[in-house]
Amino acid sequence: MQKRLVLDEEQIAITLRRFCHQLIENHDDFENTVLLGLQPRGTLLVDKIVALLKEISGVTVPSGYLDATFHRDDFRRRDLPLKANETKINFLVEGKKVILIDDVLYKGRSVRAAMDAMIAFGRPQKVELMVLVDRKLTRDYPIMPDYFGVRINTLESQYVIVEWKEQGHEKDSIWITEKDKS
Hints:
Blueprint: E1 3-7, H1 9-27, E2 33-38, H2 42-57, E3 63-66, E4 97-105, H3 109-118, E5 126-135, E6 147-152, E7 158-163, E8 173-178
Parallel strand pairs: 2-3, 2-4, 4-5, 5-6
Antiparallel strand pairs: 1-8, 7-8
Helix pairs in contact: 1-2
């Protein structure tokens, strides 16, 4: 299986810092802003953003993890049931500016489901989307990120793989691979 590097560790670090500076510019003191990492792969990313924001600005932004498994449009259409992840949100989103954070934006289905799941915690004032990778030609829903690391053209036959050191990989990296044809 061939792999093509999209972003290496240094480029990811630069991208995360850029995200933080963009958030600081757009959200002033973060008084009315919360960050939600989409389970399962947006949780590491939200934790990294929260830590970097604290380092850069000295502000701890409220954050949590949101699982949208039971809000997915394909939940009951699978041969095997999906396994839900933990939702960890210890605040209301009512009237807040919410930034949904995930690693890859593909079809838009996960983000649509996340917006449905988020409503259980109140009606936000505004919702923004932050992703490391925007697979721009594959969308099923009209969903676009407000913040993105890189936009790439991919085929249906390709995967985008995000590897983190925290998950046991040698270094942080993002790859495009072809689906195994065997």
